[in-house]
């Protein structure tokens, strides 16, 4: 349970002696850590170490005859001309960001809507990022565009140096297809921007000393006018330096009319306060801290709840619900407007996505980790839902929304079925499949099963097993087990293109575990593995591994684990707690030193997920599983492959660096590779992504498939 500030203060007084001892142990641990120098991201000594480690790892894995074959296969799939890329709606057309062998950094392009429905759309280039990078001698990575509605002519383009979360923002004219001369420009930083009108922005960014949170995110929002220097921007809201971050929002309907402007003050990664900016001053909304304003639809304001809430005796809502307010009533008095229910999850259900068209609301809902889609309509004071008959046993995600015509497109995917795009007209109820990606691998010999393992506390943990149809269950199938389990993010089925070609086609298996801490079953599933209960995620993961072995699908000799970021922490915990269960571990951009994570990268922003190691009570529960500290002499670990990025400004590369250095000091085998670019994805372009896949599967084959 989260410790209140008052309780924390009383606790520190009551437990002064133990806290002092803990501080003494902490200071000693910091002093005794011989690898702190690796925390200096661009330090000459640290970078020399990185180069030496990269050379050693690449020397082994790239010299394996499988590597070149895997790289070429992965690249051919990633660069395929007939693959399906995400699109978004814009005016009378659709936009898409596209990368291939000729456009390494990518091209932002558009097509007319009817053209996109054909198998060979006619695309028009808006911005060539490769050409821009060459002209400016920068390694630009396109991070999206924020266009002013409803005209969607003026856009704010976000560009990242090498894939970092920090971006520079420039104003772009979509019709002229050029950056606006003397237009809005925001230098590099972690920042959030919302259009008010063509001459006004609301901006949260680094405004100078004392305007960033401890996690390195902005907590001051200002109004910036056209031609104004940043120094002249007018402050409209200030959060607290102890917050996660603060960002502006503008509530617009489908016709572009503004109904409110405001700021969201994220107190932590899981708790927020919403403030609307009224003529008489800011007003904090009467919402629970675990709630999110999501959209406007059908003349109503929609809010998603991540905790139970009783705003009045006759109005009670369960966690995971969506509620709505009459927009006119809410604007007149946002503190007294009454909410009504839109959606309430049933057993083993969770909201996945929602979007608004002109007259309808479209929801995708998870039921036992499989997607269903619905049209919601508001009429005479109530919402009614109609199912959309999309393919079953798949993941359904919203792709593009045509707000003026009540139409949407869905992307439908599963582990073995190639991704397809479906078009749906909510008014006429017409549904059709527009296009489908050709198969990237032969899936005819595999099947998907949904199984369950029993965790330490008796909870059933579902997982998907993708295995050969006719495999003998004698423990010999080389198997990779993937997990995440954090931040209420669900792990959903998606087509295993490169993974299918490099791993499944050869008779191997892949497993995806739906662990507590994720969002597969809504907020409660997440909160069951938060803070003091974070070890629960690892218990679930280990339970799935044991279940695979019990069923004789695989064995410790043939079982490997894989995960990134929070999933990297998960894998690190699994191999330090139960190293005998695994013979391979692929650890991507991981959190590993949990006793110092708040001091590294954006770590302080995740205190709401893990707890604060600076507080004695919370440090105690973190210390029990922190993988870096659990690497000790006398144990044999499964020679992990650790992958990081120098440009990762979210999860600091020191987590992976220090773990590799400690393994070396313990005389334990390992592989370490740090991509200089790539940000938190560890890959800034398709070639780097193909290289990472080839390294991972060369490693997996060497560890799990060799005799």
Automatic annotation (TrEMBL):
One GO-annotated biological process of the protein: proteolysis
Any one GO cellular component localisation term in the record: cytosol
All copies of domain Peptidase S9A N-terminal, residue ranges: 30-436
Family annotation (Pfam families): Peptidase_S9 (PF00326), Peptidase_S9_N (PF02897)
Keywords: Hydrolase, Protease, Serine protease, Signal
Signal peptide coordinates: 1-20
InterPro entries in the cross-refs: AB_hydrolase_fold, Pept_S9A_N, Peptidase_S9_cat, Peptidase_S9A, Prolyl_oligopep/macrocyclase
Coiled coil: none
Entry keyword RNA-binding: no
PROSITE patterns from the UniProt entry: PROKAR_LIPOPROTEIN
Protein name: Prolyl oligopeptidase
Source organism of the structure: Bradyrhizobium yuanmingense
